[in-house]
Amino acid sequence: MLPRICIFLYCIFIALSSFSTTSSLLNLTLPHQYPNSEAVVQEVQRRVNVSISRRKMLSEQSQCLTGNPVDDCWRCDPNWVANRQRLADCAIGFGQGALGGKGGQIYVVTDSSDHDTANPTPGTLRHAVIQDVPLWIIFQSDMIIKLKHELIISSYKTIDGRGANVHITGHGCLTLQYISNVIIHSVHIYNCLPSGNAIIRSSPSHADWRGKSDGDGISIFGSRNIWIDHCALSHCTDGLIDATLGSTAITISNNYFSHHDKVMLLGHNDKYLADSGMQVTIAFNHFGEGLVQRMPRCRRGYIHVVNNDFAKWEMYAIGGSANPTINSQGNRYIAPADPNSKEVTKRVDTDEGEWGGWNWRSDGDIMVNGAFFVPSGEGLSTQYAKASSVAPRSAGLIDLLTMNAGVIGGPRDNGMSMSYGGGAATGETGGGGGGSSGRDDDYFGMIFGSGASPTKSFPSTIMLLSLLIILSLYIMTNHIGSLSLL
């Protein structure tokens, strides 16, 4: 009896061990992940093509059209101020479902101060973002908001800086933690420093002790349906935008990034399986002066990088580890003069034997000054593209699509004159921050599924199975032994 049980358990162990290396059963998908990433990519392409075609047909009658589908959605309305919430219908890509404060009341920020993080003053931005109802937040006038600690934003909020010159700086900056449906539009974010070890209110009924934050411009933890559009970000201590801990359904569009080392991190760490379901669209952004790396740096997930202008980098533009899918379409990559930094891509701490199967593709990109993109996996085959690409091979088209990147009506670049906000982040693990535990097994309600990209192996899973089998054999052996003594 016992030998048969042992053989049976051994067969199960072998089957599960081999299955875990080839199947997507053990991949985690996020509850609000799009089941078909390529369908979302195709819709972005369709929206761009429609806007470009409309501009060509109506350029003489309507000078407001740019071919940028986000801007053309609302800027051609001369009365947009009276219809601000129309913006919520203009997002594209994976973050297109971000409602922000649509349907909620208009909240006018009248006070730029941030004196009390535990009991925010009514009329301040901090008081607005913690309310537990949908709000469309606007600003009475130009203002510089110097944060005392990180600004914890609750679900269903739009921060709409259109019509005012709004600067957010100081300690902590913007935190989106385990929330949904947030739009951040037309604000300058810079000189963000680490902060915390303080009581910070996150809702009208809850204030809690927060640990030290990283000093990111915008930190996104375990959140979904997020859209960051037409902002100018620079000079922060850690990342300008970091999305980690199972965040998904994000669009980062029309922003102006400058003067920073590690620009954008997507993914907590290589072992955090929940980030396999991360889906991010990066579109129409300008990556400009003083940037070094991470535009973005990806761990797992599906990242669509489309119609961006990469004007500067020092080390690399797009990096990754842990088998992310990177779909680069219709971007312009201008390599630096350094002959050792011409490559757009970087596989971080991984040899070719492993990354050769990762799906990284370049489709219709423009390579300038010796820039080159190293594709891999299915990206090596033209058959991988299921629909015709936007493929803007004209540099003039990229200029057109990104001409308004940054805060509309203000300087695109936050400026070299500002004092630098802090040093570079340490290490490649990233993804920590204000009060988050950062545990690898903290999946925030993730579920098992088959929609994420397969990974190569799960050593920890095999080890766990081995221990369970050894324990089972020990129990059965002792149990049978005790029976024989009866």
How would you characterize this protein structure?
19% of the residues lie in helices and 27% in strands. The strands form six sheets. The chain has a ten-stranded parallel sheet with strand order 2-3-6-9-14-17-21-25-28-31. The two termini are 17 Å apart. It has seven helices and 33 strands. Helix 4 links the parallel strand 2 and strand 3. The chain has 486 residues and is α/β, with parallel strands linked by helices. It folds into two domains: 73 residues, no CATH class; 365 residues, Single-stranded right-handed beta-helix, Pectin lyase-like (Pectate Lyase C-like). It catalyses: Eliminative cleavage of (1->4)-alpha-D-galacturonan to give oligosaccharides with 4-deoxy-alpha-D-galact-4-enuronosyl groups at their non-reducing ends. This is Pectate lyase. Its cofactor is Ca(2+).
What would the keywords be for this entry?
single chain, 486 residues, ten-stranded parallel β-sheet, Pectate Lyase C-like, nine-stranded parallel β-sheet, lyase
Total DSSP E strands:
33
Mean pLDDT: 83
**CA-to-CA gap between the ends?**
17 Å
Any idea what the CATH architecture of the largest domain is?
A: 3 Solenoid
Structural class: alpha/beta
Sheet-strand content, in percent, reads 25-35%
- What overall geometry do the principal axes of the alpha carbons give? globular
Strand order of the largest sheet: 2-3-6-9-14-17-21-25-28-31
Number of helical segments with 4 or more residues: 7
Number of domains: 2
What percentage of residues falls in helices of 4 or more residues? 10-25%
Give the name of the CATH superfamily of the largest domain. Single-stranded right-handed beta-helix, Pectin lyase-like
Give the CATH class of the largest domain. Mainly Beta
CATH topology of the largest domain: Pectate Lyase C-like
Rounded to an integer in angstroms, the radius of gyration calculated over CA atoms is: 24 Å
